[in-house]
Amino acid sequence: MLAATRNRLTLAVAAALISTAALPVMAQDGPQATPAQTPAPSAQPARQDAVELDKLVVTGTRVQGRSPTESLSPVDVFRPADLEKQASADFTDQLATIAPSFNTQRFPIADGTAFVRPANLRNLPPDQTLVLINGKRRHRSALVNLQVEPFGTVNQGSQAVDYSLIPSAAIQRVEVLRDGSSAQYGSDAIAGVINVLLNDYDDGVRIEGQYGSTYEGDGDKWRSSFNFGTGLGDAGFFNMTVEYFDSNHTSRGIPRADAAAVGAAVGSGLVPFEGLGQRWGDPDGNGLRSFFNAEYPINDAVSLYGFGSYADTEYESSFFYRTPVGVAGVAPRGTLFVDADGNGVADPVAQSIVDDIRAQGLNPADFLTANAASPSGFIALNPIYVLFPGGYTPTFGATVDDYEGVFGAKGETGAGLRWDVSLRQGENEMVYTMTNSINPSLGRLSPTSFEPGHLIQLERGANADFAWPWQNDVFASPVNIAFGGEWREETYKIGTGDAASYTAGPTGALFGVGSDGFQGDSPEASGDFSQYSRAAYLDVEADLIERWTVGVAGRYEDSSAFDSTFDWKVSTRFEFTDAFAMRATVNTGFRTPTPGQLNTLDVTTTADSTGTLVPLGTFPVNSEAAIALGAQPLDAEESFAYSAGMVYAPNDVFTLTLDYYNIEVDDRIALQTINVADGSPEQQALIDAGVPGAELLRQVSYFVNGFDSTVQGVDLVATYRADFASWGTGVFDFRHSYNKQEVDSVAVIPGTATPVIDAERVADLENQLPNNRSVITFDWRSPWNVNFTARANYYDSWEDFTFGEKGEFGSEWLFDLAVSFSLYQDKLHITVGGNNIFDNYPDKETNSTLNFLGAQYPLSSPFGFNGGEWYVKASYEF
Hints:
Blueprint: H1 2-21, E1 75-78, H2 80-84, H3 91-98, E2 102-104, E3 119-121, E4 129-133, E5 136-137, E6 171-177, H4 182-185, E7 192-198, E8 204-214, E9 221-232, E10 236-247, H5 257-266, E11 284-297, E12 302-318, E13 337-338, H6 348-359, E14 380-381, E15 395-412, E16 418-435, E17 449-470, E18 479-495, H7 508-511, E19 527-545, E20 548-559, E21 565-575, E22 580-591, H8 595-599, E23 602-607, E24 613-618, H9 624-628, E25 637-648, E26 654-675, H10 681-688, E27 699-723, E28 729-746, H11 759-767, E29 772-781, E30 786-795, E31 798-802, E32 805-809, E33 812-823, E34 828-835, H12 848-852, E35 869-877
Parallel strand pairs: 4-7, 24-27
Antiparallel strand pairs: 1-6, 2-3, 4-5, 6-7, 8-9, 8-35, 9-10, 10-11, 11-12, 12-15, 13-14, 15-16, 16-17, 17-18, 18-19, 19-20, 20-21, 21-22, 22-25, 23-24, 25-26, 26-27, 27-28, 28-29, 29-30, 30-33, 31-32, 33-34, 34-35
């Protein structure tokens, strides 16, 4: 039924596009915004904090002069002050704190996902939201999220933009389009579009510094930024922002049960992380983030422009704890010790051999070999175990280097045709590091530090955009006809790790291969993988009569790796009175799997339902391992969505919008995980396919088109600006978002009745993110150079399903407070504030396995588990 509906609507929209495009073109009588145009240099003061309810938007429309309440689709506009009056220096957290439809979580001990945090718009995966900078597509991170239990699976398999590399000091405003827009912008815009507009101030310097910490005394955060603007020519500008940040780790876990036992036997000082074994909390991070934005008019009709970014950041976190040899009652980690019968438990006879040798004052490693299977009553002991009397915990880190450059020209012809042509290139590189680990197959010769490899996401693109307002006597306004084309290329590169990180030594069949915790990429796994696409679009918008606006858009896109697609969007808005209007949209969308998703090869370590660490391999869908287990080529994800809403704006101080939406997504990408037992047909298939280390793998994953889902919800936004006369002004802002996801159908593994995703992941998709979120903000501007901001964040209850156990967690309110003072002729600004000032935490974790692993609070918490934070910030402008 859905397919038939789509087909009928596609034919109708195609006919509308053809007939509209055939309209005669006539001269325009005034300029309008070119597609994705950067706003002109602001004539307002360098830093404008006042809320402007009628601020114009450039996202979701290619018509100049639309305000958020006049747009055909719902658009949120956020100011720099909304972002900066927070304890966090991470744009991911900053936006999630003020936009209830935008959610993020913190996953420690989750490989690169601990550093590049996924974020969800309308409860859909991160890569189903398109991110723009100044209206141009932003490149993705090199990280493909591969989370498995216990790290939550809502974002599993996604490859998206790294929001944390965008410094808030570089932002003029953020526009969040809460509507599917693939027909206007291309792949990924299923949930909506986030457009970050950069500073274009042409005069002044701003220096800023911020320091803060948690109530627990950890997680110290430093942030300093420098913003500089100057004019170029008569009407151009150059604006640059450089920001440095340094954030220390937090720790909210308790000692693992086995770590506590080891600490009692050998002393907690020998157990990693001060006896905890591992750390549940934020990672350490530091680095540089910078942006520039510039425009230079050649003449009255043509301007050159450019913007770009550079970032160099480093992060460090921990993996799971590995237990040592020789502690009674504690099973040693298999990389150090394997018992005679292979059940992972030291048998008494084997342990007595070790004890007898030690009693003689000798080193067991001199007597026990580690290069062959052992008969009953004998053990195989890795001689490197003597380096870790308290066990070991691999420390995982990443260096992220990122750059982007966009350069183009735009202008307007004498006939009124506005044009914008541009080229862009962006690259994100992640270089992994690991310390305090071993390659167990190398025995005593193993190093303890590794560089397991590096990943690169390289993107190039070219855009040509045109807009032509057709003046006519038929409709109530000019018909804005926008059209253009795009070419883009994505390349995913996997770089080889150092030899020790992937080498199979003499005892590989016994202890494991490669760096423990995160196996390095071998030369066979490395390579460059590319795909490109070409697209053409047409976007028409006009007032058919004085109070009725209609927009129609269509886009054809052809990909080198997937079938071509045609997507469309129809939007309408009817103004019943000057104060009240209704709006609605219907659209189709798509997202093509990335080269990263198609070619990721990763071998890491996860925990099973008993807390035992097991090796997990994720393989490309076209690899021997995936094909041996039944993998099929991937298709693009497709969506069908509609929305309807109302706008009430009786005056210039109050607005109210209410919008309902419904998004159906077919063929969603999922990470299928297959358990591999010793002697199983799956293991034999991997061995027959020649997969390295097949005998040791216990789980194998690869991407599939796994399921269909529907997300629906309601967004409410109300804003009121009050005049308190001699007491200044205040802005009350209330935002509520209701989002509910349902999994409609799940594919099965070919040749079986086994579903691609299990009931636990279905439950997580439907319940792990809160259905209801609210943000209430009051911002008071006094005439005495004192400003006051109070914010309340409401998070509805949520559930997660991990290791066969369902966890239920209650709703929570978090309160933020900030007071700002302006001194020295309004040039010096000091802010004292706090996030979560009442130090609220989520309900305690109830999962028995996670409790054993030392987790006190749910990893799926939508607001983390650090508790309260305070900060002090000072800025100076000159």
